[in-house]
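User: Before I run my own analysis I want an independent prediction to cross-check against. Here's the chain; please return only the structure tokens and, at the end, one sentence I can use as a sanity check.
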Amino acid sequence: MKRTLWTSVGAGLIAAALSVSPATAQEVIRIGVTQPLTGAFAASGNYVTQGAKIAEDQINAAGGVLGRKIQLIVEDNKSNPTEAVATAEKLISKDKVPVLMGAWSSGLTLAVMPKLMEYGVPMLVETSSSGKITVSGNPWIFRISPTSEMEAKAFAGYVKTLGIKKADFLATNNDFGLGASKEFSEMLKAQGTAIGEIETMDPKATDFSAQLAKIKNSGSDTLFVTTAVEQATLILKQAKEQQLKQRIITTGGSVSPDQLIQQAGDAANGSMHLVFFTPWFPEAVKNPDVAKKFVAEWNARKYAVGGLTEGFRGWDGIYTIVEAIKAAGKADPVAIQKALWNVKYKGINGDIAFIKQGPAGQESGQNVPSVYLVKIENGKVVKN
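Assistant: Structure tokens:
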């Protein structure tokens, strides 16, 4: 079939973008990605996407999977549950992806989950921590990030070491924040730690003076904060302004210490952070060769150093999906779902494999990843 050569450069670019032949479409294996590229969680969503794109390029450079290249179809869920549902609908029904990765926040992931049940398409959850995600009876969910309960259990060994006698909480008023406050407070109570104020905030809020005033007077020694890096930066600054004496520890693994150092300055000193990857000392992780390869490529692309603690999620997520496609032998949703149960991949966050969680016969897959505690001292990230 002959094509007409357009002389208009602009028209030619549009034609090139749209003229994907059926043969080309069949050659690639599409993977849907829904992330918050704009809105309250934009920084983290973009970092995850950058990590996923690195994985895409590395996998394709090595020959792809099943003799075909992969293609990420990335949609912006705008940090909004309604938009997240719309992106999942588009990726599944229009783009015909056999598998998805998403959707960063627990609230976004929970919103998408009914669509996975409706269409019978698996989703690899790279970030969300709410326990609800893997116990609600959705067999299309496979999560590589830890639940808040897992994170709290991993932290339990630090309670006595740090001398935590009384703790307060400040968390986003959504499944991500509320889930973390619940699991950490229960863990602390079991350790004999008193619980003081449990404060919440809207994910879009920028003024935390009221909550911090209550916390300042609570008599606690530690404040656990659960939110994205944008709010955490403001909280550290405002806590310094109010002269809070409490030690601040962030949970969820989504508060980039490097970004806090850059944006909060001296206010970040002394704060501690639970993270799921330690790019400052990659030799400390279980699979250092994988970690060093990722960090080297991230830096070669001149991506923000502060994004490494989020970007690795995208890398691990896409590689895990590709391992499942390889094992399935075809890009079919049901085949990929079944194959995910047997995946064993050496990821940046440790060895990735799935255990069953949820009601019998409708279990979701849950990985058991690594959790680390780091501290900011004199403008640098150090091992705790």
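Sanity check: The radius of gyration is 21 Å.
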